[in-house]
Specification:
With about 400 residues, this protein is α/β, with parallel strands linked by helices. The chain is about 25% helix and about 25% strand. The protein is built from nine helices and 18 strands. It has helices at about 20-35, 65-80, 105-120, 130-135, 160-170, 215-220, 290-300, 300-305, 345-360; strands at about 10-20, 40, 55-60, 95-100, 125, 145-150, 155, 175, 180-190, 190-195, 200-210, 230-240, 250-255, 260-265, 265-270, 310-320, 325-330, 335-340. Helix 1 packs parallel to helix 5. The protein starts with 11 loop residues before the first strand and ends in a 30-residue tail after the last helix. Pfam families: DAO (PF01266).
Length: about 400
Amino acid sequence: MSSSAFPTVPASADVVIIGGGVMGASIAFHLAEAGVTNIVVVERGDLGRGSSGKPIGGVRAQFSDPLNIELGSRSLRAFEEFPHRPGADIRLDTVGYLFLLDSERQASDFAAGVGLQNSLDVPSRMIGPEHAQRLCPYLSTDGLVAAAYSPADGHARPGLVVQGYAAAAARAGVTIATRTAVRGMDTAGDRVVGVHTSHGRIACSAVICAAGAWSARIGDMAGVHLPVRPVKRQLAFTAPLAPPAPRIPFTIDFSSTAYFHNSDDGLLLGLADPGQAEGFDTTWTPEWLELFRTVARHRAPALADMETAGGWAGLYEVTPDHNALIGRSGELPNFLYAAGFSGHGFLQAPAVGEVVRDLYLEREPFTDVSPLSADRFHRGAEIRPEAHVV
């Protein structure tokens, strides 16, 4: 599935997809499945090593914005069907998602979200602190007002999803050029006509940017403004637990963003550092763990002093309103993009792959994604009302 053994990329393509993470792989699979031929995926490193590289990714439909609910819900169904289409075990574990709420305002906001989710066939519900503790025995109910729980959510392995989509795309004839950097683009009139890479130029009929945290740089090469900023996020793993950890939901303390869930023979611990500077640095810093431990001492005391065995740092691709950029450039109609998912890219990738396929084929997607156009920031559109951001 790699052209890195070859000195050059193909001289031409109908579609060049920039980015070999979960979004690029999903788009390549869906286009190939629809009969689009002559597709090249260009990835500067190895597949799934950017934002998709995280060891476990949450999958959920618990959002406050109808469009995000639809993208999450449709993707959940695709993850369930993944062993059959495209055909891979992604270690999907439907343990549910549990949001812990410590104020009446949070409870009211999430209750409104649950009502909207239920209207879109998502089986979420509000529950009390004691019920939350039964689902997740590590919890202290002190200060908890309520929780929001959806049993259909859970987590899966992003690396396996990327490989599953990429393998199916390669079987369908897609060229996947790894270790191939994009250096620039040629435009003529209102079209992109070529992509310059470290392994040669590809003349093309369309470009799709799925470059995650690096999407602003790719957009700049074509003169398309994609307001995506990189922000480091870190997580850690506990040492193996004996006796084993109970099977718990993907549990999030909403006020602090601290979260934890099962991971192999222990737990995965995470938290978004509010003081984290922007940038492409992905150095894991163990000192970050103190932020998690401080929250855990109050919310899940048994976790505060658990021994850890390493961790991981990756990049969120953040937009000004923490919602994705999906669409077609107004200035260059053959330049499409799917980026800036602000932590929700993995869980929305199957549905977004379908949407971008349909945008490319100029047919109606299953849901209207025009509100996610990158143009929204300079045409004064209403900011997307997504509250369930972690």
